[in-house]
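ok here's (3R)-3-hydroxyacyl-CoA dehydrogenase, seq below lol
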Amino acid sequence: MTALQLRLRSALALVTGAGSGIGRAVSVRLAREGAAVAACDIDGAAARKTVQLLGQPQSEEGEPPRTHAAFQADVSEAGAVRHLLEQVQACFSRPPSVVVSCAGITRDEFLLHMSEDDWDKVLAVNLKGTFLVTQAAAQALVSSGCHGSIINISSIVGKVGNLGQTNYAASKAGVVGLTQTAAKELARHGIRCNSVLPGFITTPMTQKVPQKVLDKVTQIIPMGHLGDTEDVADVVAFLASEDSGYITGASVEVTGGLFM
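and the structure came out like this:
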């Protein structure tokens, strides 16, 4: 990718859930597009491993060299999220102009047997965590007068449901509603908010699914195969860049045609 193609050369991107799966792929792609990346994960060692994969970000001519950085935070804790944004701004001397909420967990069980604790944990990370990061990042951008792009990772499951995932489906449906409302409220501040709805993507999360289930899923995907994390990262990079400058409040499905 040549310098002319580095769409995010002046961007600072905060990615949560950056230690693995979609979050790691997004971090790699945004760095390749020229962004400086603040990679955050509840597993600090995993975030540091991601940063090791990123290389050095491109600097504008005349600018001092920039670098990437790893951060550890539990996005379900308001104080931890506030501290994260403070750390990022202290490290890079500005708020992140691109924010991607990838942090998410599953605690699967059928509705008839799901515990309240498993419901609460999934909603706390997937929905409350996305709210806290979106709010804190938006507050930092508005107070500094900067424009930005906030991208929240939902799931096609949030649109169509899935057996054994009432908690996950509810959390991801909530992410879409949160993002659409944030888009309406923040547009006047020059902040765009969009969500991405992956289908079945090859990640550590889907690797826990029995192979026979994955085989059945693959049979009903029109494109005939599971997606790669890079497929999601490509869409995130587009939404992060000015190539999508007139897009906000959108929900982009990355599913290989599943449930269309």
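fwiw The two ends are 33 Å apart (CA to CA). kinda neat tbh
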